[in-house]
Design goal:
Strand order of the largest sheet: 7-6-5-4-3-2-1-8
Largest sheet: 8 strands, parallel
Distance between the termini: 48 Å
Helix content: 25-40%
Strand content: 15-25%
Structural class: alpha/beta
Shape: globular
Number of strands: 8
Bound molecules: pyridoxal-5'-phosphate
Radius of gyration: 17 Å
Number of helices: 9
Order of helices and strands: HEHEHEHEHEHEHEHEH
Length: 221
């Protein structure tokens, strides 16, 4: 019992359901590099650009039945929404009503619902995508109006700083938003935050899903 409790407290979770999932961010990596990571046991991959991601999904079609899982994690243009809704199983970057409607329209009704996360601009930087923290609740409500979208949680890219106190404050605000949504009755299970340079702090602050590229594959060319 003690062991189980301390395991939970340290974020280890149960063996079948790890507390923190790893998304291997494979932008700028070849299909072969993804295949190699898959062979080593990695299942979830994140792509930022629709065209590039769709080409790799096609090249790795044989891994679909073996459980490869594709996450769209980049800015989504509306003219790409149909293909992304058809080919990816997660879209982590919902940031406006029009893209929500377009994705919902194109999910194949015979497939499982599309897993989605709301992207939050927690740092408030003007050049960054995402809804403002105070918009998250009403936006979540609008997303759950579509039965073929499954709202899994929140995603963020915090400010790119090395100051750990700043990182921690932004991750903590995201965790608060996550709890607020849960308390409002949204059955969400995903808080997607933390990249190569800041994932240890993100995990300490409640991340359930880290998105790591360079620390796995090396620097991108
Ligand atoms: C590129 C990217 C990552 C991974 O960044 P690394 O620094 O390579 O770990 C994670 N999330 C998003 C949205 C990205 O665009």
């Amino acid at each position: 019992m003690r062991a189980a409790l301390s395991g939970r407290a340290s974020g280890l979770g149960s063996p079948t359901e790890p507390a923190v999932r790893l998304i291997a961010v494979s932008k700028a990596q070849s299909a072969e590099a993804i295949r190699e990571a898959f062979r080593a046991g990695q299942r979830a991959f994140g792509e930022n650009y629709a065209q590039e991601g769709l080409a790799k999904i096609a090249a790795l079609r044989d891994l679909q039945l073996l459980g490869i899982e594709w996450h769209f994690i980049g800015p989504l243009q509306s003219n790409k929404a149909r293909l992304v809704a058809e080919q990816f199983s997660w879209v982590q970057t919902l940031d406006r009503a029009s893209i929500v409607e377009k994705l919902a329209r194109h999910v194949n009704p015979t497939n499982a619902p599309l897993n989605v996360c709301i992207q939050v601009n927690v740092s408030g930087e003007s050049n960054k995508s995402g809804v403002a923290p105070q918009e998250v609740l009403p936006f979540a409500k609008s997303v759950t109006a579509f039965s073929n979208l499954k709202l899994r949680g929140l995603m963020t890219i915090i400010e790119n700083v090395t100051n750990e106190a700043i990182q921690r404050a932004q991750f903590r605000e995201m965790h608060q938003l996550f709890l607020t949504l849960n308390q409002a009755g949204y059955a969400i299970d995903t808080l997607s935050m933390g990249m190569s340079h800041d994932f240890p702090v993100a995990i300490e602050e409640g991340s359930t899903m880290i998105r790591v590229g360079r620390a796995l594959f090396g620097e991108r060319n």
